[in-house]
Design a protein that fits this description.
By secondary structure, the protein is of the alpha+beta class. It contains 16 helices and ten strands. A hairpin with a 2-residue loop joins strand 6 and strand 7.
Length: about 425
């Protein structure tokens, strides 16, 4: 591109036009791209924040990788733990027993998932320390039949630290009166709040020795839970174990166990991004109308340039520069506004709540009471690239039309 093409194209963008409506449409196009990009970057950052927050809450209770034995029984978990710990990505291992049960207190019955754990090892794969509302996980001692339950389960049962509850095992015992479920009284020694309703309302933790007695597991466990240095390496670690471990195991990772949650968030993010991207597309179409009117307004100028020796390709480049300048300016302003808003969306929402006396995320209703945000460079670059490409494509037809103007026809009535 020659200097005069760039000079004239930029001059057309800032020169005072005879038709002020063209300037107004140019401004609307620039503002449309700016607002569209700002909204798109902010929404994608908030969706990333929600995904990160939900993932952190789930993995605070769940494990990155889980290895279970056939028929929910694993005999020699210590040798397995020693073997998998040799993998460079594994930072912690903990055995567990997983079983179903029912808890009863004060005529209230609730179904739960019972997890038998070793408290000292469980802390290496899950973050219960920061989620405990009352009591400590270490209070679970073998033979004392203590139990730690979620906050929603505690509220449902009306049982908190120090209260006695009945744990009912589905494994029956034969008596002269028939087969009866096994019952055992447990003492609530702690309550946790993971911030995820599934766990807070349906998970109960007991010591692994107590679980082995209650569910007649002898010295067996259900499986092994692993923590990785990088959670996103979980699928690869699963593949590594599937090819290296000898024995019959079922190996899964957090992306499989909680796929529905993260898939739903990802779909919502994509659909919102697609809808907001239409704002940028509409702004790009405004560039088309702006340049078409600019070409009509500058027909005499185009004709003079042609008579002075400018080629049709040069005329085309001039208007491509004009349209691209609008797109680039809108992209730069949009990225700046989007990044600033994404990093300060919490303060902006708090100001709006204070100004209009409303509360968008009430502590009494939602587990996440503040708008989380996680701007990612890849999303910002993708949005900026799409905006620039759409703006560039929008200049092709008007520029091509300008290059086809006949100088004699344009100057006939001048």
């Amino acid at each position: 591109m020659s200097p005069y093409e760039l000079f004239i194209g930029l001059r057309y963008t800032r020169a005072k036009k005879r038709n002020h409506f063209i300037s107004f449409i140019s401004l609307i196009s620039l503002l449309g791209i700016t607002l569209g990009m700002t909204a798109l970057i902010t929404v994608m950052s908030v969706m990333n924040g929600f995904q990160k927050e939900v993932r952190a809450r789930i993995l605070g209770v769940a494990s990155h990788v889980q290895i279970t034995g056939i028929n929910n029984k694993l005999s020699d978990w210590r040798s397995l733990a020693e073997e998998v710990s040799k993998h460079p990505s594994v930072t912690g291992t903990a055995p567990f027993i997983s079983a179903q049960g029912m808890v009863s207190h004060d005529k209230v019955v609730h179904g739960v998932i019972v997890r038998g754990i070793l408290p000292e090892r469980e802390s290496t794969v899950a973050n219960f320390t920061d989620t405990m509302v009352s009591g400590e996980l270490i209070n679970l001692s073998p033979g004392e039949f203590g139990i730690v339950i979620g906050i929603e389960l505690a509220r449902s049962l009306g049982a908190f630290s120090g209260d006695k509850i009945i744990l009912i095992s589905p494994q029956g015992q034969v008596t002269p009166a028939g087969i009866l479920p096994r019952l055992k009284q447990f003492t609530v020694v702690g309550v946790f709040e993971a911030g995820h309703f599934e766990y807070d309302s349906g998970l109960a933790l007991i010591h692994m020795a107590d679980a082995q007695k209650l569910y007649r597991m002898d010295n067996n466990v259900s499986g092994l839970r692993l923590k990785l240095s990088d959670m996103f390496q979980a699928p690869q670690v699963v593949n590594d174990f599937a090819s290296s471990l000898t024995g019959a195991y079922y190996i899964s990772d957090w992306t499989q166990q909680h796929a529905n949650y993260f898939r739903a968030i990802q779909i919502e993010k994509r659909m919102l991004s697609l809808i907001l991207a239409l704002i940028i597309a509409v702004a790009a179409f405004n560039i088309v109308s702006t340049l078409v009117m600019a070409v009509t307004d500058k027909q005499s100028d185009i004709a003079i340039l042609r008579t002075l020796g400018a080629s049709p390709r040069s005329i085309m480049k001039i208007f491509i520069v004009q349209g691209t300048f609008i797109g680039v300016a809108g992209t730069i302003l949009g990225v700046t506004g989007g990044v600033l808003l994404a990093y300060n969306v919490g303060e902006v929402v708090a100001f709006i709540e204070w100004l209009f006396k409303v509360e968008f995320l009430s502590n009494e209703i939602y587990y996440i009471s503040k708008i989380p945000t996680d701007p990612q460079i890849a999303d910002i670059v993708a949005v900026a690239s799409v905006s620039f490409i759409l703006s560039l494509l929008a200049t092709i037809y008007p520029s091509y039309r300008a290059a086809k103007i006949n100088p004699a026809e344009a100057l006939r009535y001048e």
